[in-house]
């Protein structure tokens, strides 16, 4: 290589290094909760982090959200409230989310009476 080519190659390398160094370290936007590398899900057109929220009735809700089911309270992200009419008075059963309400009772179910 001629000295002129070496100087040109060296100055090009220094220019590229200075341009890369001028950009600084990658910075995430302030307040960004969802990063592209994290697992995410959709709920009613919105993205959410399934480790912190769930989709309930097309709304993003925190995993800790609870709701009444007769005289019981159930966790909407993990359980569901099912009507159960085997008793004379109106009763409900809290089942694990994903189980069909028409399935027979299981050991995980909680029977809840109606609130008058």
From TrEMBL:
Residues 1-24 form the signal peptide. InterPro entries: IGFL. Its main location: secreted. It holds the Pfam family IGFL. It is found in: Secreted. The keyword Signal applies. The keyword Signal applies. Keywords: Secreted, Signal. It comes from the Eukaryota. Belongs to the IGFL family. PANTHER family: INSULIN GROWTH FACTOR-LIKE FAMILY MEMBER 1, INSULIN GROWTH FACTOR-LIKE FAMILY MEMBER 3-RELATED. This is IGF like family member 1.
């Amino acid at each position: 290589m001629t000295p002129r080519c070496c100087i040109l190659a060296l100055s090009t390398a220094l220019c590229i290094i200075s341009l890369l160094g001028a950009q600084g370290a990658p910075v995430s936007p302030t307040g960004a909760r969802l990063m592209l590398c994290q697992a995410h899900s959709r709920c009613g057109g919105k993205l959410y982090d399934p480790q912190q929220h769930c989709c309930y009735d097309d709304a993003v809700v925190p995993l800790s959200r609870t709701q009444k089911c007769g005289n019981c309270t159930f966790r909407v992200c993990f359980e569901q409230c099912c009507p159960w009419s085997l008793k004379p008075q109106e009763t409900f059963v809290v089942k694990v989310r994903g189980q069909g309400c028409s399935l027979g009772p299981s050991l995980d179910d909680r029977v809840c009476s109606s609130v008058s």
